[in-house]
């Protein structure tokens, strides 16, 4: 197989699988690595996705990790690069989207890129620079209550401008609707005006395909996974890629399963409530963890004593989250939950569990690292933005089946659907 064509850097683990899912749908054989690999050996894939855990760390660390990922991807021979972040633009006034995008542009010696987190299939659209989640603005969607990255402004031009010294512009919908050539012309106008980063409107998949086509010759593209819809076709058109109809094929894995949920999003809260209405569940209490109570052991014992799949969750309502954060601090509370769920996953793996459904980007990152997974093959879509995946076994490792879900993604019955898909 020829060297990889598209090299991607994702700022969290579920975002990485979300992106990889899009590329597989476009016929690109895709491998996702967990962090930057410590080897220069070539990986056989059309697209490579490096999953970082850099969304909420200090901006300077996020920049350093992203540049390390870029260096590895360039060594793999990639021709174009993609910086992937959440479709709700999760970030703070200090970053990390702006600083990372700027650093990547500098490293590539490039002068412009777009920023488009739109994902219409999951209800994320952008109009006149404002991000909508379903029918409401971002700052009215529940994201204003996010414990780490509260999104209180729907205008992404303003949000991104607060994060960067570069001038930020806008590619409005009336230009997007005219197609790729009009978008390229607008990009040229923005560059002449000194703009280096531009938010791009998008209301439909057709808009994302147009943006992808317009970015055919750009070294760097940034956005949510949706914008990746239009990138594979550019390689097809240039006769660099042959559509792989079997790109999503995975082998069957047998064994017990578990569902782990750490996200406090509205979607995950609904999914947890749906499961708990008829199936066994165990709640991980961060206050009990802080007191040194044997929560991890009790959760593992609970799962091992049930023949059917159980849910182990730390998901709470926004009010409960704020109460816990007030007592423990946001960072401490989050770390306690992530560490606990990671330990539970590792102990259950050792007890024979082979299938893991995980809700929450930070939780997924902690679990994947605890399981010692270095890379994933990407399989078929379960729900928009969430594919089935399978660990790439090394040495005598047993492959694991995983569904890693962003907190905001998935239908109410997602956990049940994911278990069937795995």
Characteristic key phrases:
single chain, 422 residues, Rossmann fold, Molybdenum Cofactor Biosythetic Enzyme, Chain A, 2 domains, 3-stranded antiparallel sheet, 21% strand, globular
What this model shows, in words?
With 422 residues, the chain is α/β, with parallel strands linked by helices. The protein has 15 helices and 18 strands. The protein has helices spanning 13-25, 59-75, 97-108, 156-163, 173-176, 180-192, 205-214, 231-237, 266-276, 286-290, 295-304, 318-328, 330-350, 361-370, 414-421; strands at residues 6-10, 30-34, 47-51, 80-84, 113-116, 124-127, 130-133, 136-137, 167-171, 195-200, 220-223, 256-261, 281-283, 311-313, 353-359, 375-383, 386-391, 401-405. It is globular. Catalyzes the ATP-dependent phosphorylation of 3-oxo-tetronate to 3-oxo-tetronate 4-phosphate.
CATH superfamily of the largest domain: Putative sugar-binding, N-terminal domain
From the 3D structure, determine the CATH topology of the largest domain.
Rossmann fold
**What general form does the structure show?**
globular
Mean pLDDT: 92
Number of strands: 18
Number of helices: 15
Protein name: 3-oxo-tetronate kinase
Keywords: ATP-binding, Carbohydrate metabolism, Kinase, Nucleotide-binding, Plasmid, Transferase
Domain Four-carbon acid sugar kinase N-terminal: 6-230
Function: Catalyzes the ATP-dependent phosphorylation of 3-oxo-tetronate to 3-oxo-tetronate 4-phosphate.
What is this entry, summarized?
38% of the residues lie in helices and 21% in strands. It contains 15 helices and 18 strands.
């Amino acid at each position: 197989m020829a060297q990889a064509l598209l090299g991607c850097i994702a700022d969290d683990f579920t975002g990485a699988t979300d992106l990889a899912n899009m590329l597989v749908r476009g016929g690109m054989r895709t491998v996702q690595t967990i962090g930057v690999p410590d080897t220069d050996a070539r990986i056989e894939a059309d697209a490579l996705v490096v999953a970082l855990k850099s969304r909420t760390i200090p901006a300077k660390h996020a920049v350093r990790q992203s540049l390390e990922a870029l260096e590895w991807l360039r060594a793999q021979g990639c021709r174009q690069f993609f910086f992937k972040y959440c479709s709700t633009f999760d970030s703070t006034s200090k970053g990390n989207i702006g600083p990372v995008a700027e650093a990547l542009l500098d490293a590539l010696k490039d002068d412009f890129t777009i920023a488009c987190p739109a994902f219409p299939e999951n209800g994320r659209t952008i109009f006149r620079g404002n991000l909508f989640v379903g029918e409401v603005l971002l700052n009215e969607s529940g994201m204003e209550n996010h414990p780490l990255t509260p999104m209180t402004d729907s205008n992404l031009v303003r949000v991104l401008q607060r994060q960067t010294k570069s001038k930020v512009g806008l590619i409005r919908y009336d230009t997007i609707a005219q197609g790729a050539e009009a978008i390229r012309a607008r990009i040229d106008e923005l560059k002449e005006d000194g703009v280096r980063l531009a938010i791009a409107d998008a209301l439909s998949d057709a808009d994302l395909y147009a943006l992808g086509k317009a970015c055919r010759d750009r070294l760097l593209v940034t956005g949510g996974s949706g914008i990746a819809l239009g990138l594979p076709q550019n390689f097809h058109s240039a006769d660099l890629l042959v559509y792989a109809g079997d790109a999503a094929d995975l082998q069957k894995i047998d064994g017990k399963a578990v569902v782990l949920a750490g996200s406090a999003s509205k979607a995950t809260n609904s999914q947890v409530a749906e499961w708990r209405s008829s199936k066994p569940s165990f709640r991980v209490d961060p206050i009990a963890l802080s007191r040194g109570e044997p929560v991890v052991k009790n959760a593992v014992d609970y799962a091992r004593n049930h023949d059917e799949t159980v849910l182990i969750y730390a998901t709470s309502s926004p009010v409960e989250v704020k109460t816990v954060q007030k007592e423990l601090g946001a960072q401490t509370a989050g770390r306690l939950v992530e560490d606990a769920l990671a330990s539970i996953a590792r102990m259950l793996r050792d007890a024979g569990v082979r299938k893991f459904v995980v809700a929450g980007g930070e939780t997924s990152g902690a679990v994947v690292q605890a399981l010692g997974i270095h890379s994933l093959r990407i399989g078929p879509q379960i729900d928009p933005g969430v594919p089935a995946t399978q660990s790439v076994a090394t040495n005598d490792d047993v492959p694991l089946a995983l569904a890693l879900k962003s907190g905001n993604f998935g239908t109410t019955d997602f956990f049940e659907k994911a278990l069937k898909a795995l």
